[in-house]
């Protein structure tokens, strides 16, 4: 499970990452990444999830959220510690196999992080 200290909580943080960060789309998700320039750091990257009603009913959305949080915890060590990341689930994420979600998150994170570094 993704530790609470590595989650985005404030809506202002979500807005900053989505509006100012770099974006990379994949079939199952869109990954937004932004370099955290604040003075307060939590000691690692912070992740936020957006799973809209387009993904499915509440049971489906919660299942997708749990799966994405688990994958975010898996890739946590590979992500730069000063990044803020928002993962927006696409409807395809509801039926995608675990391997596809992992691949899409890893490649999306790598591309978005690279773009975020280049633009900051």
Describe the structure.
The protein has about 120 residues and is an alpha+beta fold. The chain has one domain (about 5-120): Ribosomal Protein S5, domain 2. It has helices spanning about 10-20, 60-75, 100-120, and strands at about 20-25, 30-35, 45-50, 85-90. Strands 1-2-4-3 form a 4-stranded mixed sheet, sandwiched between helices. The protein is globular and about 35 Å long. This is Ribonuclease P protein component. It holds the Pfam family Ribonuclease_P. It catalyses: Endonucleolytic cleavage of RNA, removing 5'-extranucleotides from tRNA precursor. Its EC number is 3.1.26.5.
Q: Keyphrases for this structure?
A:
single chain; 120 residues; alpha+beta; Ribosomal Protein S5, domain 2; four-stranded mixed β-sheet; globular
